[in-house]
Amino acid sequence: MQSLKDLIRNAADIKKQDDVEIPEWAPGVMFRVTGLPSGDWEQYQNKLSKMTRRDETSGLEMTIRSNKAEIVAKALRDQESDELVFTDLREGVSILSKRSAGIVNGLFNLVKHLSDDDVDFTTKVKRAEQDFADGQS
């Protein structure tokens, strides 16, 4: 019997969605979009806001930045090979930053959904409890 640690390590809990078509970019081509592991999502969240010090008299200034292109570049895959479309993250961000904001935002929202970041913790617990109850015989 596997230990709890091994069960967690081996869990296939990263969601994905196949058959994502982006006709404006590649008509007839199907992409796979994946959720991100916790470490990647947390790294992105930490980049969203950063503290910067302007000078002694002005104190701290909050700078907010969002790089949805980075998340999309980490999650967009060739459906047939399951390879990342952008194996070079910087290049992917550069390319996606120049594409339609609506398309990139839509893909970002899909990644956010697949990463379970669009659901609050209480709802996640209720879903898990329901899934557990449904699996009991």
Secondary structure layout plus pairing:
Blueprint (H helix, E strand, L loop, with lengths): L3 H7 L5 E6 L8 E5 L3 H11 E7 L3 E6 L3 H8 E3 L10 H8 L4 H14 L6 H15 L2
Antiparallel strand pairs: 1-2, 2-5, 3-4
Distance between the termini: 21 Å
SSE string: HEEHEEHEHHH
Quickly name the level 1 CATH class: Alpha Beta
| Strands, total number | 5
The Cα radius of gyration reads 19 Å
CATH T-level fold name:
rbstp2171
Helix proportion range: 40-55%
Please describe the biggest sheet, giving its number of strands, its sense, and whether it closes into a barrel: 3 strands, antiparallel
Mean pLDDT: 85
- Which strand order does the major sheet show? 1-2-5
The total number of structural domains is 1
CATH architecture: 2-Layer Sandwich
Flag low-confidence runs.
Answer: none
Structural class: alpha+beta
Shape: globular
The number of helical segments is 6
In short:
By secondary structure, the chain is an alpha+beta fold. Helices cover 46% and strands 20% of the residues.
Explain what you see.
There is one protein chain. Helix 3 (68-75) crosses helix 4 (89-96) and helix 3 packs across helix 5. The protein has a single domain (13-135), classed as rbstp2171 (2-Layer Sandwich). The chain is an alpha+beta fold. The longest helix has 15 residues, at 121-135. The radius of gyration is 19 Å and the shape is globular. It is built from six helices and five strands. The mean pLDDT is 85.
